[in-house]
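Exercise: predict the fold of this chain.
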Amino acid sequence: MWKEKKKHKLAEQLASTLVKYDLSWQVSNNEYNRTLLITMPRDPLNVTKRRRVSVQKREERRKNTEERLERTALFIAAKTGIVEIVRKFLEVYPASIYHVTKNKQNILTMAVKYRQKKILKIIERTGTMESLVGQITDKGRTVLHEVARMDYYKAEHLAGVAFHLQDELR
């Protein structure tokens, strides 16, 4: 028991030190700046092939960038439910709660998207819920849309199908 407690204390000290020197949350994307680039098609004769290739490239880019854009320490902690690190961030840098990623997601959107109730309670205690709820992502989604999505839902380990359905309804 003593060894486990010692490991926990060391992990907390390490997290405190890392939070103190992590400034990744300061690069926030609150303004909407987008450059539109129009180019001529390379092969105007084969339209269907060009469309198919562009759709494939767009899907690959989406998959690659979706996870990469959320990789600040604060959002990783919020996404995985590491309450201690989120608390430390908000103690050391209270303004970090307003950090927004390139795809216009904030900490509340992350907590709701990945179903992290403990992180949501921390956000409620800060009193900034009203200002975070109004954020709309680049895909036009609000926090309510993220609540309704079942992509990131992890069901609890319940005994029967009826209990799973009851949990989803809750």
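Check your answer against the key: The chain has nine helices and no strands.
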